[in-house]
Specification:
Blueprint: H1 9-25, E1 26-27, E2 32-33, H2 36-63
Antiparallel strand pairs: 1-2
Helix pairs in contact: 1-2
Length: 64
């Protein structure tokens, strides 16, 4: 019997919400963020959540 693990659901939600926030903060006319410090925190959080998701996917493939 195999023990399948799914993707970590909270990290999916965090990636979606923070990704949308980054998109809303970015001004496409000037190619800059409205609030640079907040954008850096958003980007770091987004990258961390994507890293955890990718690591989970790779870990599930190695277990098979």
């Amino acid at each position: 019997m195999s023990n399948k693990k799914g993707l970590p659901f909270p990290f999916i939600i965090v990636a979606i919400i923070v990704g949308c926030a980054i998109y809303k903060q970015f001004d496409f006319k000037t190619l800059k963020f409205e609030n640079t410090a907040l954008a850096i925190i958003y980007i770091l959080t987004f990258l961390l959540s994507v890293f955890v998701l990718v690591r989970s996917i790779i870990g599930n493939r190695e277990e098979k």
